[in-house]
Amino acid sequence: MSFLNTTIKIAVIGGGSWATALIKILCEQNNVQIRWWLRNQRDIDHIRKFHHNPSYLSDVVLSPKKVKVFEKTTDAVKGADYVILAVPAAFVRESLQHLTAKHLQGKRVVSAIKGMVPDLNILVTEWVSNDFGIPPEETCVIAGPCHAEEVALEKQSYLSIASTECPTAEDFAALMTCRYVAANPLDDLYGVEYAAIMKNIIALACGITHGLGYGDNFQAVLVSNAMQEIGNLVTALDARERNLSSSAYLGDLLVTSYSQFSRNRLFGNMIGRGYGVKAAQLEMKMIAEGYYATKSIHEINKIHQVNLPITEAVHRILYEENSPAAVIDDLKKLLK
């Protein structure tokens, strides 16, 4: 798919901070037009009038010449070359319910979702291929240590664009590269996607232990053990050679586990401090993908039987209502 000297039309599905950050990055390109779908009509009206998202990253000014907002997904994807999915995994089916395979025919689909489709327990790219007939080689995922808040501040960031075929990843990586973002292509679609899902669960565990009063020494051991856990699961699900110490894997894990901007760490911290799951969800404005991912990975691992002590500890706390203090006390005996 060549876009040399042509206008590239990109539909973005989702109205949160990550969707807004991605649009900011894409607007750095001269030949890009954004077709943006948001669920909230109030936000749509505000963006049309004032050219910024009132609910997320409100300091980011969006060019009205490059960004057009739509109420219907069918209108947003019309004529688009790429469709970026940037909604929480729990809402991806609902957000795309009015689209059919015909609407997405001939388009490349990009998942900016670091979560699994709940209940189905499958990757977002797998769901897109299954339900909309998009060939796997025409899908890719956005991963890497890159918080939306730092994109808004134009702090140097790095992304990994992964696909089963290098040309797809290379094309989209070029679109996501600008003066403050370096984007690199990878051909490990499923490994990157599974690692991105797992790191949210680990960030929850880090938040829980921090809320319980554990210090930096314990957190370092937890994260190093978590990297082994991620590697074991990813290998069981998609065995191939991959460098797990690269930024797409380890870098993403580190920033999500330690950053002040990590919603999964924040959610876990609230649980560790004594909040119930529902109380923590109500207090947070944004979705913590790790909550849903924990259940999905737990269900998947019933088949593969990989040793996942950290993931299982988080599952015991969130879904089996075990005491965080007691569960982490058991977990720390398994770490090395």
From TrEMBL:
<comment type="similarity">
    <text>Belongs to the NAD-dependent glycerol-3-phosphate dehydrogenase family.</text>
</comment>
<dbReference type="GO" id="GO:0005975">
    <property type="term" value="P:carbohydrate metabolic process"/>
</dbReference>
<feature type="binding site">
    <location>
        <position position="114"/>
    </location>
    <ligand>
        <name>substrate</name>
    </ligand>
</feature>
<feature type="binding site">
    <location>
        <position position="56"/>
    </location>
    <ligand>
        <name>NADPH</name>
    </ligand>
</feature>
<feature type="binding site">
    <location>
        <position position="199"/>
    </location>
    <ligand>
        <name>sn-glycerol 3-phosphate</name>
    </ligand>
</feature>
<keyword id="KW-0520">NAD</keyword>
<keyword id="KW-0547">Nucleotide-binding</keyword>
<dbReference type="GO" id="GO:0046167">
    <property type="term" value="P:glycerol-3-phosphate biosynthetic process"/>
</dbReference>
<feature type="binding site">
    <location>
        <position position="18"/>
    </location>
    <ligand>
        <name>NADPH</name>
    </ligand>
</feature>
<protein>
    <recommendedName>
        <fullName>Glycerol-3-phosphate dehydrogenase [NAD(P)+]</fullName>
        <ecNumber>1.1.1.94</ecNumber>
    </recommendedName>
</protein>
<comment type="pathway">
    <text>Membrane lipid metabolism; glycerophospholipid metabolism.</text>
</comment>
<feature type="binding site">
    <location>
        <position position="148"/>
    </location>
    <ligand>
        <name>NAD(+)</name>
    </ligand>
</feature>
<feature type="binding site">
    <location>
        <position position="91"/>
    </location>
    <ligand>
        <name>NAD(+)</name>
    </ligand>
</feature>
<feature type="binding site">
    <location>
        <begin position="263"/>
        <end position="264"/>
    </location>
    <ligand>
        <name>substrate</name>
    </ligand>
</feature>
<keyword id="KW-0444">Lipid biosynthesis</keyword>
<feature type="binding site">
    <location>
        <position position="39"/>
    </location>
    <ligand>
        <name>NADPH</name>
    </ligand>
</feature>
<feature type="binding site">
    <location>
        <position position="148"/>
    </location>
    <ligand>
        <name>NADPH</name>
    </ligand>
</feature>
<keyword id="KW-0560">Oxidoreductase</keyword>
<keyword id="KW-0443">Lipid metabolism</keyword>
<keyword id="KW-0521">NADP</keyword>
<dbReference type="GO" id="GO:0006650">
    <property type="term" value="P:glycerophospholipid metabolic process"/>
</dbReference>
<feature type="binding site">
    <location>
        <position position="262"/>
    </location>
    <ligand>
        <name>sn-glycerol 3-phosphate</name>
    </ligand>
</feature>
<keyword id="KW-0963">Cytoplasm</keyword>
<dbReference type="GO" id="GO:0141152">
    <property type="term" value="F:glycerol-3-phosphate dehydrogenase (NAD+) activity"/>
</dbReference>
<dbReference type="Pfam" id="PF07479">
    <property type="entry name" value="NAD_Gly3P_dh_C"/>
</dbReference>
<dbReference type="GO" id="GO:0046168">
    <property type="term" value="P:glycerol-3-phosphate catabolic process"/>
</dbReference>
<feature type="binding site">
    <location>
        <position position="114"/>
    </location>
    <ligand>
        <name>sn-glycerol 3-phosphate</name>
    </ligand>
</feature>
<dbReference type="InterPro" id="IPR006168">
    <property type="entry name" value="G3P_DH_NAD-dep"/>
</dbReference>
<comment type="function">
    <text>Catalyzes the reduction of the glycolytic intermediate dihydroxyacetone phosphate (DHAP) to sn-glycerol 3-phosphate (G3P), the key precursor for phospholipid synthesis.</text>
</comment>
<feature type="domain" description="Glycerol-3-phosphate dehydrogenase NAD-dependent N-terminal">
    <location>
        <begin position="9"/>
        <end position="165"/>
    </location>
</feature>
<dbReference type="Pfam" id="PF01210">
    <property type="entry name" value="NAD_Gly3P_dh_N"/>
</dbReference>
<keyword id="KW-0594">Phospholipid biosynthesis</keyword>
<feature type="binding site">
    <location>
        <position position="263"/>
    </location>
    <ligand>
        <name>NADPH</name>
    </ligand>
</feature>
<feature type="binding site">
    <location>
        <position position="17"/>
    </location>
    <ligand>
        <name>NADPH</name>
    </ligand>
</feature>
<dbReference type="InterPro" id="IPR006109">
    <property type="entry name" value="G3P_DH_NAD-dep_C"/>
</dbReference>
<feature type="binding site">
    <location>
        <position position="144"/>
    </location>
    <ligand>
        <name>sn-glycerol 3-phosphate</name>
    </ligand>
</feature>
<dbReference type="GO" id="GO:0005829">
    <property type="term" value="C:cytosol"/>
</dbReference>
<feature type="binding site">
    <location>
        <position position="264"/>
    </location>
    <ligand>
        <name>sn-glycerol 3-phosphate</name>
    </ligand>
</feature>
<dbReference type="InterPro" id="IPR013328">
    <property type="entry name" value="6PGD_dom2"/>
</dbReference>
<dbReference type="InterPro" id="IPR036291">
    <property type="entry name" value="NAD(P)-bd_dom_sf"/>
</dbReference>
<keyword id="KW-1208">Phospholipid metabolism</keyword>
<feature type="domain" description="Glycerol-3-phosphate dehydrogenase NAD-dependent C-terminal">
    <location>
        <begin position="188"/>
        <end position="328"/>
    </location>
</feature>
